[in-house]
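User: Hi! I have a protein structure encoded as tokens and I'd like to know what sequence might fold into it. I'm fairly new to this, so please keep things simple.
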């Protein structure tokens, strides 16, 4: 009767039959005494102590069904793992057993009750005495052995990707462990977790283009934050000495293997500290996170062993570009001169609107891919670091570093500029850049300057990308693999 119907139509017919028997195919609750893993542990303990095998109630998604006439083996899976079921017509009764064979499919959620035993192959199994349907699935699952191969489908319909792959689920469990360990480390260091606005009247704290929105009731333009930096530093002005926030930031930029317009970042600020203190904080925090999330400070990334055990290498930006690109950028103090030298050396970098951004491009294209072991690249040109404090012995550079591990840039930090008059001058210089066509220039923020006028102590700040850190710890080269629902182009 069902021949010629596709699988969805077949399942719809089964659903109708289930309802005709007066059974609710989507009940509100399930009875469960054990998870799958707890049931297996309970049997092992009973077996070891010589006690009778326990009776359990377990629930989960059917992942396999093997019908063998009057008996059936099946596997269900819950969040803890899988357990085998054994269903026999003599135990369930002919009518119930036939219902299971005819109307229950792989992918359905069921609950069962029965006692545990070990099969001849040694597998702990539930001998089912009762079963109930918990959710009838109307669409077949991804093909078991090959899973989802289409990248677009994996990202657009992440729920299918998670169903098909335990490895994918483990990536996101690791991500959770990373964030938990990060919080634990900062809390133990005396930092206070806070929340700052996502909608801001003046965006700032980074050099990036914002997303713009409109507040109807107030009739004003607002921006999704590109960083929470300036609000966190206002809290330092207000008397907090150690603060952090783990939050979503938004930058209106292209999508790539390293960039998603919506990403997660941790930023922390530490009064009476400088960028050297932030180096210590960073390397010890990342080592702690690795221990907690992976069980070791050593791990493989793209076929290379990475060791995040402190201390990490410190390398000046100027020295790094000189060694790897052969250019001392201080010998070429204008954009035109530096670009001419880049072209003369036939380096594969893109033209940039400013001298400082061209130096950043050299860093990203020439230096960054070589930095496999954790490295602090430090001391950046002042014109690409408008919120950082100038070096006392080199006023053309600031006390800033970026974090590189596995050939990825994963964070940014500096000694915070706390001179309100100099900060105003920096913002004004950024304004000139904006007029010249730099659409990522930092805007003027009068209220932030007013906050600095009330005094901010010497402060170190740090931002680390949670997505980038997860890429590193899970051996992924695309940021989309570590974001549950990455941004995608419309299917229309």
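Assistant: Happy to help. Inverse folding works backwards from shape to sequence: for each of the 492 positions I chose a residue that suits the local structure. Here it is:
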């Amino acid at each position: 009767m069902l021949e010629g119907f596709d699988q969805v139509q077949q399942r719809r017919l089964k659903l109708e039959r289930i309802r005709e028997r007066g059974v609710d195919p989507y009940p509100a609750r399930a009875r469960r005494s054990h998870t799958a893993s707890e049931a297996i542990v309970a049997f092992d303990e009973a077996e070891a102590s010589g006690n009778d095998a326990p009776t359990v109630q377990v629930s989960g998604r059917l992942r396999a069904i093997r019908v063998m006439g009057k008996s059936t083996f099946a596997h269900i899976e819950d969040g803890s793992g899988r357990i085998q079921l054994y269903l026999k017509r003599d135990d369930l009764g002919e009518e119930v057993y036939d219902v299971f064979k005819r109307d229950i499919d792989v992918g359905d959620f069921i609950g069962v009750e029965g006692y545990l035993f070990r099969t001849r192959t040694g597998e702990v199994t539930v001998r089912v005495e009762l079963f109930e349907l918990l959710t009838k699935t109307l669409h077949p699952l991804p093909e078991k052995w090959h899973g989802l191969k289409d990248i677009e489908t994996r990202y657009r319909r992440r729920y299918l990707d998670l169903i098909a792959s335990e490895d994918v689920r483990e990536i996101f469990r690791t991500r959770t462990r990373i964030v938990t360990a990060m919080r634990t480390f900062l809390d133990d260091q005396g930092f206070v977790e806070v929340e700052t606005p996502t909608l801001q009247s003046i965006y700032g704290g980074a050099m990036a283009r914002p997303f713009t929105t409109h507040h109807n009731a107030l009739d004003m333009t607002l921006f999704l934050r590109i960083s929470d930096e300036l609000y966190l530093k206002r809290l330092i002005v207000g008397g907090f000495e150690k603060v952090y926030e783990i939050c979503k930031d938004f930058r209106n930029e292209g999508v790539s293997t390293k960039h998603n317009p919506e990403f997660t970042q941790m930023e922390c600020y530490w009064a009476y500290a400088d960028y050297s203190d932030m180096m210590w904080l960073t390397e010890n925090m990342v080592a702690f996170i690795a221990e907690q999330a992976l069980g070791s400070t050593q791990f493989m990334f793209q076929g290379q062993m990475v060791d995040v055990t402190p201390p990490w290498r410190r390398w000046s930006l100027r020295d790094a570009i000189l060694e790897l690109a052969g250019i001392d950028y201080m010998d070429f103090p204008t954009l035109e001169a530096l670009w001419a030298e880049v072209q003369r050396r036939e380096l594969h970098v893109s033209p940039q609107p400013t001298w400082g951004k061209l130096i950043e491009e050299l860093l990203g294209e020439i230096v960054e891919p070589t930095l496999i072991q954790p490295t602090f690249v430090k001391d950046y040109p002042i014109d690409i670091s408008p919120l950082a404090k100038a070096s006392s012995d080199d006023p053309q550079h600031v006390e800033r570093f970026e974090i590189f591990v596995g050939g990825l840039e994963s964070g940014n930090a500096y000694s915070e500029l706390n001179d309100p008059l100099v900060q105003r001058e920096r913002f004004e210089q950024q304004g000139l850049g904006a007029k010249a066509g730099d659409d990522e220039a930092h805007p003027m923020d009068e209220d932030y300057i007013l906050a600095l006028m009330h005094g901010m102590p010497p402060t170190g700040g740090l931002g680390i990308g949670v997505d980038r850190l997860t890429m590193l710890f899970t051996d992924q080269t695309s940021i989309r693999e570590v974001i549950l629902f990455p941004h995608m182009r419309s299917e229309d």
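A useful reference point when you look it over: The first helix runs from residue 7 to 20. Feel free to ask if any position seems puzzling.
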